[in-house]
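Hi everyone,

Forwarding the result from last night's run.
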Amino acid sequence: MLRNKIHFDFRKENAIQAVMWFLSRHGYRLDQMKALKLMYLADKAHLAKYGRPIAGGSYYAMRYGPVCSELYDLFKDPSGIPFHLEDNFLKADECEYEEDCLSESDKEILSEINEKFGSKDPFSLSSYTHELPEYKNIWDENRKEGRKKIDYESIINDEEMKEIIVDDQSAWDF
């Protein structure tokens, strides 16, 4: 079995524009936890279908579910980005996201995730992500703090897709 071979760097601009995409569909105000869960689900779905996440980065199991560490850090220090955190809500001026930064497949998956999960409250999304195997298999429910790394290999359910990604990434190793 493949272990720790799959890695995707955090694509900051993609992450920012994907969050802006969600914000533009939620009145430019979105609960931080909900945004983190929607982005995780979007990355997971894009990875499964297209072999890469939208934002990428390092994923961790935390108390309220899976989180992209770099995105979470961005939310905590949003200097130089088009949204800000206020009382646990991401807020932005009513400006459009930069559509050219997102691929057609990115927008397709963001739409699908928003359609399926966009109306759910943050704690329902948290509960949903607690049932995902990649989270459930490593998180101890009695744990209240901290985090545990979620490997990309555990996020991808399709063995053939794992092989394709590993082969693709191996081609770039020198």
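The beta strands are 29-31, 59-62, 65-68, 83-86, 89-92, 148-150.

Cheers,
N.
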